[in-house]
Amino acid sequence: MIGNDLKYAAGLLAAGELVAIPTETVYGLAGNALNTKAVAQIFAVKDRPSFDPLIIHTSSVDRLVEWTEALPAELYRLAEAFMPGPLTLLLNKLPAISDLVTAGSARVAVRIPSHPMTQELLGQLDFPLAAPSANPFGYISPTTARHVADQLGEKIPYILDGGPCSVGLESTIVGFEEERLTVFRKGGLSVEDIESVAGPVVVREHSSSNPQAPGMLKSHYAPRVPLQLGELKKLLEGKDRQRIGTLVFQQEVKGIAPHQQVVLSPAGDLQEAAQHLFAALRQLDNMDLDVILAEYFPEEGLGRAINDRLKRASVRE
Ligand code: TXA
Ligand code: MG
């Protein structure tokens, strides 16, 4: 069921049930992070491997003292600047957070969403919510309540509808690695914004052998229709007989029917493009196409995270 009854949602969560929640990044599949059964249920509903840890969500940085060690100075500065918002920090966990949530790691990922409905919900709860993106493992993250309902609607009792997500990309994950401040996953907060507060950071590309953040696994966020990423002119060669969809930044491609094309931001605004990216991928994936062709976005600001998602979507394994 889709609705906007916060009291009902809070009651379900307190009873150990799962509820899909809106955040400014993407919709989350939420359960009480302190309730082992609820956490296990999240993995089951998503069909997610248990080695892939979950982010916990609460309403303010002050409340983290119950669940994490104190923030190191650099991360505290980032928290002050960007929380609530599309930022996730990796912090040393306290025993209250189980190994199931962190997949055995001594660190827990934490996020303070700014979405007003979810802020209010979290404020009413005396436990944090574990919430991965509310999609089946490996598929595109949902940015509307309808996206969630289409894929998980029958498996969960309630979906809180907070409208379309304003950021549209998952949070940027930051923590320390070998004592250096590191971006583990590019996301809705740009690397430039982070560096403006924290100075230069290391930006990790994926590592599929021993992923610290499996959101960094190569094949992730993938539509069912094969997606090819590159220079459109080249990609179009030899495809005369194929049904082609295109995903482009500002301008339609000549020779392809307009209804098979998605232009993410005619004005060239990367924020707007990010906001619509996942809905566009879903839209194209639900059309009768042989292939989706996408172009690279400018490698700056949110364009870096957009390119990252497109690269992962284009890998077929
Ligand atoms: O924007 C977001 O971050 C959304 C919303 C719902 O908050 N959540 C989200 O969760 O994208 P999920 O589970 O789809 O992706 C979380 C990523 C995974 O790649 C996971 O491996 C990584 O965070 N992660 C979580 N806990 C971690 C930990 N303790 N150490 C390293 N990576 C961690
Ligand atoms: Mg995810």
Question: What do you see in this structure?
Answer:
The protein is α/β, with parallel strands linked by helices. The protein contains 10 helices and 15 strands. It has an 11-stranded mixed beta sheet with strand order 1-8-2-3-7-4-6-5-9-10-11, with helices on both faces. Strand 2 and strand 3 (28-32) form a beta hairpin. Helix 1 crosses helix 5 and helix 9 packs parallel to helix 10 (302-314). The longest helix is centred in the last third of the chain and has 16 residues, at 270-285. The mean pLDDT is 94. The structure holds threonylcarbamoyladenylate and magnesium ion.
Discrete helix count: 10
Overall mean pLDDT:
94
> Which overall shape is indicated by the principal axes computed on the Cα atoms?
globular
Bound molecules: threonylcarbamoyladenylate, magnesium ion
SSE arrangement, N to C: EHEEHEHEHEHEHEEEHEEHEEHEH
What's the count of strands? 15
- Summarize the main sheet: 11 strands, mixed
Distance between the termini: 34 Å
Report the helical percentage.
Answer: 25-40%
| Structural class based on helices, strands and sheet pairing | alpha/beta
The value of Rg in angstroms is: 19 Å
Give me the side-by-side strand order of the main sheet: 1-8-2-3-7-4-6-5-9-10-11
Which percent range describes the beta-strand content?
15-25%
Low-confidence stretches: none
